[in-house]
UniProtKB/TrEMBL annotation:
Annotated localization: Bacterial flagellum basal body; Cell membrane
Cellular-component GO terms for this entry: bacterial-type flagellum basal body, MS ring; plasma membrane
Stated name of the protein: Flagellar M-ring protein
Transmembrane segments: 25-45, 442-463
Keyword Cell inner membrane in record: no
Composition bias, Polar residues: 331-341
Sequence ranges assigned to domain Flagellar M-ring C-terminal in this UniProt record: 259-401
Domain of life: Bacteria
Organism name: Paenibacillus aurantius
GO biological process, one term: bacterial-type flagellum-dependent cell motility
Record-linked Pfam families: YscJ_FliF, YscJ_FliF_C
Keyword list, A-Z: Bacterial flagellum, Cell membrane, Cell projection, Cilium, Flagellum, Membrane, Transmembrane, Transmembrane helix
Gene3D superfamilies: 3.30.300.30
């Protein structure tokens, strides 16, 4: 046994001594790299990869989820602030489903699911408090379902019920206060805020929108867009600014698309500035017009005829004494037979009556200017953008302005429209080198690099060894090529020794063994 070990040790020493110093250094470096990189790669690819499963957790929710994970023997990582929990990536979906099915993630609120834990024998006051708490919890869960909302707190004040009925007294109204915790980087638009007001108002009996207050965690009030039927000043200003911004962006996109298709992509940079009037106007107008031939339709006709006839008689009063007679007043006399007739026609005509209530447009574009930066076809030669092309661009932009300002009630000449257009001819500056390398797992790249370096070193080592062997073979004299090895048969005492020598020669020097066989065949 010791002789075998010694034999292998001698062979190893001979093997090591056969290499140069450079080859020895390369071999040692390769072995060292493999010894370091292979265990590290095995560790990296076999370790558990965690993925974020829950974020923005309330303390009671985090406690319930971690308790479930411990009981299920699922490994997890809890963030230092206790608001985030990570689980193995392969189990994220299963954990989320199980947590939701068990009602563990309630965002710090308890809704109607607490009814199953409600004991019997509660008093009316206790039940009223629990019911109000459950309603508040349901509202919190509903508000937390909005994407920008990380959490919420709802406080509802309900009017107390009275056993007495007071005739003519209006029912007392409820009120609600809501505090929202907005996620970092998110912002609630006015439409979502109005939706929250409506949801809270419809969820509570006798709760008008005016009795609801919603604010965010920093104390900033989030007002309803139509308080008492009129938009608040801040909401109105934000809405008007958004309309102006959207109009400018739409025109800018259209100009960029049109000119970009003509001059080429990246050759045009437009800038649009609009002036908008948001004054509202309401007017009422009544118009009457005939139906046919400047006449209306006869709706009703009324004809009245009156006739009188008399055969004569006295006129005046009873004669007086003469002293009381009025001078020049006719006295009693006989006038004979008399007749009279009166005809009256009343015709009601129906005419067209048009009642118009006109509300002006929500806004009117008072003015619009467009400035365009154009890169010439040859960047270093601004003259390559011909004046004809520049004039065509200006005319195209003037047409855009004309169609946009068509409803503001003003008339513009071509010269006025061209004054609102600016075309700047200049080569564009190259984009700044702001490329930020993507976050990469440098450990993985380092391990792969070490493994590649080790493989390259091993390949170089064996390649140099083959080259060295080839050089040694080339250095042999030409006569050695025809010298064939022989086996000393005379010094061999038995067949076993001959067989062992032949096996050794075949294993160590197969080419010489073949040449030996050829020699024997030729001799025979």
């Amino acid at each position: 046994m010791n002789e075998s070990i010694l034999q292998y040790w001698n062979r190893a020493k001979q093997f090591w001594a056969s290499y140069t110093k450079t080859q020895k250094m390369t071999l040692l470096a390769t072995v060292l790299l493999l010894a370091v990189s292979i265990p590290w790669l095995i560790y990296y690819f076999s370790k558990t990869e965690y993925a974020l499963a829950f974020t923005d957790l309330q303390p009671n929710d985090a406690a319930g989820i971690t308790k479930y994970l411990d009981s299920s023997k699922i490994p997890y990582i809890l963030s230092p602030d206790g608001k985030e929990i990570s689980v193995p990536r392969s189990q994220v979906a299963d954990v989320k489903i199980n947590v939701v099915s068990q009602g563990l993630n309630k965002n710090g609120s308890i809704g109607y699911e607490s009814l199953k834990d409600s004991p019997f024998g509660s008093t009316d006051n206790e039940w009223g408090v629990k019911k109000l708490s459950m309603v508040q919890g349901e509202l919190q869960q509903m508000l937390n379902s909005f994407e920008p909302v990380a959490g919420s707190k709802v406080m509802i004040t309900m009017p107390e019920k009275s056993v007495f009925v007071t005739p003519g007294k209006e029912a007392e109204q409820s009120s609600a206060a809501v505090v929202l915790q907005i996620k970092p980087g998110y912002e609630l638009d006015q439409q979502k805020i109005d939706t929250m007001y409506s949801l809270v108002s419809k969820s509570i009996k006798n709760l008008p929108v005016d009795n609801i207050t919603i604010s965010e965690q920093n104390g900033e009030l989030l007002p309803y867009s139509k308080s008492n039927g009129a938009a608040t000043a801040s909401t109105l200003a934000a809405s008007q600014f958004q309309i102006k911004k959207q109009l400018e962006q739409d025109i800018q996109k259209n100009v960029s698309r049109i000119l970009g298709g003509i001059l080429g992509p990246g050759k045009v940079i437009p800038m649009v500035t609009a002036s908008i009037n948001f004054d509202k106007k309401h007017s009422t107008r009544q118009t009457y017009s005939p139906v046919i031939d400047q006449k209306g339709i006869e709706r009703s006709v009324q004809e009245i005829q009156k006739s009188y006839s008399s055969d004569g008689g006295t006129t005046g009063g009873t004669p007086g004494t003469g002293q009381t007679d009025v001078p020049n007043y006719p006295g009693a006399s006989s006038s004979g037979k008399s007749t009279s007739e009166e005809v009256q026609n009343i015709i009601n005509y129906e005419v067209n009556q048009l009642n118009e209530e006109i509300d002006s447009n929500p806004f009117v574009i008072n003015d619009l200017t467009i400035s365009v930066g154009v890169e010439p076809p040859e960047k270093t030669n601004s003259a390559s953008l011909t004046p004809d092309t520049t004039d065509a661009i200006k005319q195209l932009l003037a047409n855009v302005i004309s169609s946009t300002l068509a409803n503001n009630g003003k008339t513009y000449t071509d010269e006025d429209l061209l004054k609102k257009v600016t075309v700047f001819n200049h080569a564009f500056a190259g984009p700044a080198n702001t490329d930020v390398p993507n976050p990469t797992n440098w450990y993985l790249l380092g391990g792969i690099g070490l493994a590649a370096l080790a493989l390259a070193g091993a390949g170089g080592f064996f390649l140099s060894r083959r080259r060295r062997s080839a050089e040694e073979e080339n250095d042999l004299p030409a006569s050695s090529a025809i010298e064939y090895p022989t086996v000393d048969l005379e010094s061999v005492t038995n067949d076993n020794q001959v067989r062992k020598q032949l096996e050794t020669l075949a294993k160590k020097k197969p080419e010489e063994f073949v040449n030996l066989l050829r020699t024997w065949l030729v001799d025979e």
